[in-house]
Amino acid sequence: MTKFVFFRLDDPLVQLRIAPDRTMLWSVRPEFGLTGSQSGWGISPCGACSALGHALRWAACFMALVAIALFSSATAVELPAPKEAKPAPVSAKPYLGIPYHDSVYQGGPQIIPGRLQNEYYDTMDIPDAEKAAGAEEGITYHDTDNKNDGSGALNGKGSYKKEFRLAESPDISYVKMNNPGTPVDDTPFNLVQPEAEDLYLGWIAPGEWVKYTVNVQAEGSYSLTTMYTSKFGGHISIDCDGVDVTGPIAIPSTFNAADPIEWRQAHHWNKIKTAGKMQLKKGLHVLTLHFLDQPVMNFDYMDFVKVDCGTERVAEASNRPHGVCRS
Q: pLDDT tens per residue, the chain (327 residues)?
């Protein structure tokens, strides 16, 4: 369930439609480009996220915006705005993205029912120099910065997987097993063991999104199974051709306090099944995967599994542009 929240932001009255537990920090930063408050430890005492609302100082990474807005009838929230803050670009029309392809992968639109590889978000047939300049931003993806923190950076260079899509901003890495020195993705803190060398979409920040051209081969109801990591938990959602077909989907946290290495909290793998249900029509569609409210997530793949949710519920769902099959 989402809520409309009305509040004053540096005087003008604004509104957001957000999940009730979405924090003040990750509501206002991605939606309005106000990045004066920072994400520090994520547990409030460090003070990096401090923001002013109702003449009080709040731990914006800890308090839900809904709770702060309801604190008084004034519903005023103020955050220090950085210089030259600007909202995410609006996607161009008609859609200019095409299914990802390169010299190794020539699969075309990803098939539903089946597995959607998260690293194969749509691309554009333009030179890498234009991709590096951000030409795809707001069309096939929205990313909070114009750099790939994995491919060509943390992962270095010298192989296909280390350099995978390094010219594009959405951050890509791969599952590292038997890492010399410190284990990365093959630790006892995994709930499910990942596949070695699998590419994945990572360094997720709230408000980001990626698009996928898919070929739905059978109309019907689908459940979602995903292989992921998530330090804080959070929510995602999926649009089909611009229509929300899932609503917010809860992603459980994979945090484990027993792991003594802090950065490895982003590498505790898990798989959740039937995380969301949706109704999809047969044919080519563009899915948009939205990351709604928490950072530090990685997604390897999402399985779209055809399910039978009953004749009456399917009929009810069919009254919507795409609909939701509710169990």
A: 445 455 556 555 555 556 666 676 666 666 666 666 666 655 545 666 666 665 555 566 655 655 555 443 333 333 344 334 445 455 446 899 999 999 999 989 999 999 999 999 999 999 999 999 999 999 999 999 999 999 999 999 999 999 999 999 999 999 999 998 899 999 999 999 999 999 999 999 999 999 999 999 999 999 999 999 999 999 999 999 999 999 999 999 999 999 999 999 999 999 999 888 999 999 999 999 999 999 999 999 999 999 975 533 433 333 334 444 443
- Whole-number Å distance between alpha carbons of 137 and 154: 22
CB 76 within 8 A of CB 7: yes
pTM score: 0.69
Q: All domains of the chain, ordered by start, with CATH? A: 3-78 (3.10.20.30), 110-317 (2.60.120.260)
**CA–CA distance, 277 with 275 (Å, rounded to integer):** 7
Contact 263, 173 (CB under 8 A): no
Handedness of CA 225, 233, 292, 192 (dihedral sign): negative
- Give CA–CA dist 313/64, Å, rounded: 33
Burial class (CB in 10 A: 0-12, 13-18, 19+), 125: exposed
Tokens of 155: 């992962």
291 and 205 in contact (C-beta within 8 Å)? yes
The dihedral formed by the CA atoms of 213, 218, 221 and 223, expressed in degrees to the nearest 10: -60
CA-angle at 237, arms to 16 and 208, nearest 5°:
70
Question: Which of 299, 80, 92 lies closest to 208, judged by CA?
Answer: 299
Question: Contact at 8 Å (CB) between 221 and 278?
Answer: yes
Asked if residue 28 lies in contact with residue 79, where contact means CB atoms within 8 angstroms, the answer is yes
Nearest residue to 276 via CA among 300, 230, 307: 307
Pair 168, 152: CB distance under 8 Å: no
- The values of phi and psi at residue 304, to 5°, are -100, 110
